[in-house]
Amino acid sequence: MQPIKLLMEEHRVIEQVIGCLIKMAENAVASGELSVDHASQAIEFIQHFADHCHHAKEEDQLFTLMCQRGFSVEMGPVAAMLEEHERGRFHVRAMKEAVTKYEGGDKSAVRQFAANAHAYGSLLTAHILKEDFILYPMAQQAFEEGDEQRLLGEFEKVEQGHADHHERFLKVAAELGEIYKVPRPLESDRSRLGEVCAAHADMPSELR
């Protein structure tokens, strides 16, 4: 499998959990009650599957290779994606804090959880679109002979380090998807890219 295709398949799993997270937040605000079990599962999924596994492949392997091929880590698309990863982590920490407060009896924490769930969902949805249709194609154009095979080998090492997590979190995503009626997308919705990236919307159609 191509390394970029593997990353995009992981995006589909992350999108499914984001969809569940948004419904979770909506239910919590409507009822005033937060499902601690489901919220904790979603947060754990994000921290381990989305961040420690998926983002680790990007930050430690893909982005490093892209910088070796001329991209800057201080400005441009790689820098933008790194900054969005950090913003996502901020919202995840805030969600986790809200769950702890709620478990301690603070009902107002429902609003904190919901606000950060929506913020995280919006951020990651846009982030994934930009990676799928802008960053990844740029990376593939910059790859030299042997880069993809080398990258795939590095990804396999990351997977070996998270072997006990990967299948478990795929199952968590599927189970939450069943509960919240959120199917796993089969592919990324390119039509939405213009909504999240003004520069892309302004491009002539033949260049998109």
Provide a descriptive summary of the structure in words:
It is built from eight helices and no strands. With 208 residues, it is mainly α. It has one domain (3-190): Four Helix Bundle (Hemerythrin (Met), subunit A), CATH 1.20.120.520. The longest helix has 34 residues, at 109-142. The radius of gyration is 18 Å and the shape is elongated. The two termini are 25 Å apart. Mean pLDDT is 87; it is low at 198-208.
- The geometry reads as elongated
The CATH first-level class comes to: Mainly Alpha
Task: Output the structural class.
Answer: mainly alpha
Number of domains: 1
Gyration radius, in Å: 18 Å
What is the number of helices? 8
Number of strands: 0
CATH architecture: Up-down Bundle
Helix content: over 70%
